[in-house]
Amino acid sequence: MSVKACVLHAKHDLRIDAIEPPQVSDDTVVLGMSHGGICGSDLHYFHDGGVGTIRVTEPIIVGHEVSGTVLAVGRNVSTLVAGDRVAVCPSQPCHSCEFCNLEQFQHCKNMRFLGSARTVPHVQGGMRNQMLATVDQCFKVDPDTSLSSAACAEPLAVCLHAASQVGSLKGKKVLVTGAGPIGALCCAVTALQGAAAIIVTDLFDFTLSKALEMGATQSINIASSPDALADYAGENGGFDVVFECSAAEPAIRSAIDVVRPRGWIVQVGVAGNLSLPVNAIVGKEIRFVGTHRFHPEFAEAVALINSGKIDVSPMVTQVYPMEDALEAFKMASNREAAIKVQLDLRGA
C-alpha cells in the first residue's frame, strides 16, 4: 500500500506523489493525517523556491500545521493508543545543545522542523496520508474538538509566544498590523488576556472582518483610510503594545509612530532588510523585540483550543482535498478571499 504526499519538487512544481508507508518502531507512532494548514513559509517555498537564504534543493513534503489520528503505536509507547486524536508539534529540538540546556528550545542549533528546507536532507513535512511521529510531538485533542481546529495549534503557539514577550496585556491598548492568520490569532490571544482595546489594520475588508470575529474591537482598512491612525501618532503615541504581523516597512514605521513612549513593538512578521527611524525608537525608548516560534506554548495552544477559550474556526476560510493542493496553494495566496487554507489529508 502506498501513501500519498504533497511534494514540492521546485518552484511552482507541486505534485501529489506516492511514497512508502511509515513503519512503526518501538518509540514512535504512526498517524493517519487529517488536516494540514498552508503557512506563509509553504507559500514562499511554492512561489519563490525558498525563504530568505533557505532554498529548496530537493523534493520536500510541505506542511507543519497538521493534525491526525493514531493508527499504530510502538511497544514502548504507553501514553497513546490507536484512535487517539492529536495535534502534531512540528518542532523537534535536540535537547542537548547550549540553547536547549538553557530551555530556549526554539533556538536549538540542531532543530528539525517539519517541512523545513533549512537542512539537507530537508525535513519532510506533514501533508501526507500517514506519517511517523514521536510521542512528544503528539498532543491529545478532545473528542469534540475538530481536527481542522487542532491543525491551527502551531500558529496559535506562535502568537502565544509573541504575547509572552510583553507580559500582561490586561487593560492595554493594542494595535495589530496585518490581519492574516497570525494577525487574527494575535487578536484572539490579546482578547483572551483582557486587553482594553484591540485595533487591527489591513488592506482588505475580508481579512479584517475575520479579525473582528477573532477578538479585535475595531478594524481599519488602511488602503481606503490611509490616515486613520494619524490620531494615534505623535510624540506620545496611542498604543501600549503593537503586534506587527505584516512585515511591511510602512506598517513598521507606522507602529513606531503610534506606540507610546516605552511601549512595545513585537515584530512577528518576517521581513528582509528595512530602513527604519532609529532615532524615534531611541527617543521614545520603544522596546522593539523579535519573536521566534514557540516551545511550551504548543501545549498551551492545544489546551486553549480544546477548552474553547480560543475559537480558531473563523480564520479557516477554505478546506480542499489533497488532490486539489495546487488550487489550494493558489487560493492561499489570495489575501482578498482567504486567510487560513487547509488540505484534508485523509483522501487522495
Structure report:
This protein has 348 residues and is of the alpha/beta class. It has two domains: 3-152 and 312-344, Quinone Oxidoreductase, Chain A, domain 1; 157-290, Rossmann fold. The protein is built from ten helices and 20 strands. It has helices spanning 40-48, 98-101, 147-150, 153-164, 181-192, 205-213, 249-258, 278-283, 297-307, 325-332; strands spanning 3-10, 13-19, 28-37, 50-51, 54-55, 60-61, 65-73, 85-88, 91-92, 112-113, 130-134, 138-140, 173-177, 197-202, 218-221, 239-244, 259-267, 287-290, 316-321, 340-344. The strands form five sheets. Strands 3, 7, 8, 11, 12, 19 and 20 form a seven-stranded mixed sheet that branches. The longest helix is centred in the middle third of the chain and has 12 residues, at 153-164. The model has no long low-confidence stretch (mean pLDDT 96).
**H/E order of the elements?**
EEEHEEEEEEHEEEHHEHEHEEHEHEHEHE
Principal-axes geometry comes out as: globular
Instruction: Tell me the total number of β-strands.
Output: 20
- Compute the gyration radius: what is it? 20 Å
GO molecular function, one term: zinc ion binding
Domain Enoyl reductase (ER): 11-343
Pfam family, one: ADH_zinc_N
Keywords: Metal-binding, Oxidoreductase, Zinc
Question: Would you spell out the secondary-structure blueprint of this structure?
Answer:
Blueprint: E1 3-10, E2 13-19, E3 28-37, H1 40-48, E4 50-51, E5 54-55, E6 60-61, E7 65-73, E8 85-88, E9 91-92, H2 98-101, E10 112-113, E11 130-134, E12 138-140, H3 147-150, H4 153-164, E13 173-177, H5 181-192, E14 197-202, H6 205-213, E15 218-221, E16 239-244, H7 249-258, E17 259-267, H8 278-283, E18 287-290, H9 297-307, E19 316-321, H10 325-332, E20 340-344
Helix pairs in contact: 4-5, 4-9, 5-6
